[in-house]
């Protein structure tokens, strides 16, 4: 059986409490059944959906993703994946709010180009200002720049989501020190978003003190997505426990596990 989350170690986003620190996407699965089974295995409570690519009610004659991922069970996090300018990102969030009966929690991403899928930071900042002023609770995808992360927090974003590596790359965290600096200076939840490849990458993010990790491709592109979802769940839980336990100091030279003082020979 999959271990249950530690209910004494929750965190909150926009005033709502969550126990699973693994957030998952819904793209790239072979069908809705696999999507539902993988997300079930992940233990995630927050599920992000690309409004421009998935049907959540805008196409009445197509299968609705919310039929297998009901909002009564999951916090639905509409995102602006595929948006490359402020106007399209803002319009997508407003569409999601209409489709989800006034739902204000969104994930903002404004991309810079199709090859790297790196964020366009300047347009991300502008879009965040517009959305916050319009009453949205904005979780924002950005680069791993501590200065930009702090600016997005000060704008009023409810969570900042620095990338670990390019979206879908599976490279893991490329700049641990930047992520650590962002965490140390934050007053809102910090969640690594993009670039995780396997469970050890998720554990590293949690060991750095991140509040959570959002991933999609690392699960959906695995040979066995349902099994990988379970592995990611355990990696998140192990990394969080290690962070709370406080690791031993790293040392340059050996230190015997058993002290040699007072030995009989």
Automatic annotation (TrEMBL):
UniProt key word Cytoplasm: yes
Active site per the UniProt annotation: 107
Compartment(s) where it occurs, according to its Swiss-Prot or TrEMBL record: Cytoplasm
Gene3D superfamilies reported in the protein's UniProt record: Aldolase class I (3.20.20.70)
Major site of localization recorded for this protein: cytoplasm
Record key words, sorted: Cytoplasm, Schiff base, Thiamine biosynthesis, Transferase
Domain of life of the source: Bacteria
GO biological process: thiamine diphosphate biosynthetic process
Residues binding 1-deoxy-D-xylulose 5-phosphate, per UniProt: 168, 194-195, 216-217
InterPro entries tied to this protein: Aldolase_TIM (IPR013785), Thiazole_synthase_ThiG (IPR033983), ThiG (IPR008867)
GO cellular component: cytoplasm
Family: Belongs to the ThiG family.
Function: Catalyzes the rearrangement of 1-deoxy-D-xylulose 5-phosphate (DXP) to produce the thiazole phosphate moiety of thiamine. Sulfur is provided by the thiocarboxylate moiety of the carrier protein ThiS. In vitro, sulfur can be provided by H(2)S.
Name of the protein in its database record: Thiazole synthase
Organism name: Halochromatium salexigens (Chromatium salexigens)
């Amino acid at each position: 059986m999959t271990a249950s989350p530690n209910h004494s170690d929750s965190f909150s986003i926009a005033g709502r409490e969550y126990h699973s620190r693994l957030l998952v996407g819904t793209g790239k699965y072979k069908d809705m059944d696999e999507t539902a089974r993988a997300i079930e295995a992940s233990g995630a409570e927050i599920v992000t959906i690309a409004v421009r690519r998935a049907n959540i009610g805008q196409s009445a004659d197509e299968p609705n993703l919310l039929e297998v991922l009901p909002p009564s069970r999951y916090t639905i996090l509409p995102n602006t994946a595929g948006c490359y300018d402020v106007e399209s990102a803002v319009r997508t969030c407003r569409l999601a709010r209409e489709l989800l009966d006034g739902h204000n929690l969104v994930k903002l991403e404004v991309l810079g180009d199709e090859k790297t899928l790196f964020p366009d930071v300047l347009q991300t900042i502008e879009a965040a200002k517009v959305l916050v002023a319009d009453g949205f609770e904005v979780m924002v995808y950005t680069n791993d720049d501590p200065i930009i992360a702090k600016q997005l927090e000060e704008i009023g974003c409810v969570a900042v989501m620095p990338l670990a590596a390019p979206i879908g790359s599976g490279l893991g965290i490329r700049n641990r020190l930047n992520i650590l600096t962002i965490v140390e200076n934050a007053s809102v939840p910090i969640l690594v978003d993009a670039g995780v490849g396997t469970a050890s990458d998720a554990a590293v993010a949690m060991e750095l003190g991140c509040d959570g990790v959002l991933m999609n491709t690392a699960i959906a592109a695995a040979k066995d997505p349902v099994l990988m979802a379970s592995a990611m769940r355990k990696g998140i839980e192990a990394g969080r426990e290690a962070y709370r336990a406080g690791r031993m100091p790293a040392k340059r030279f050996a230190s015997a596990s058993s002290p040699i003082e007072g030995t009989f020979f």
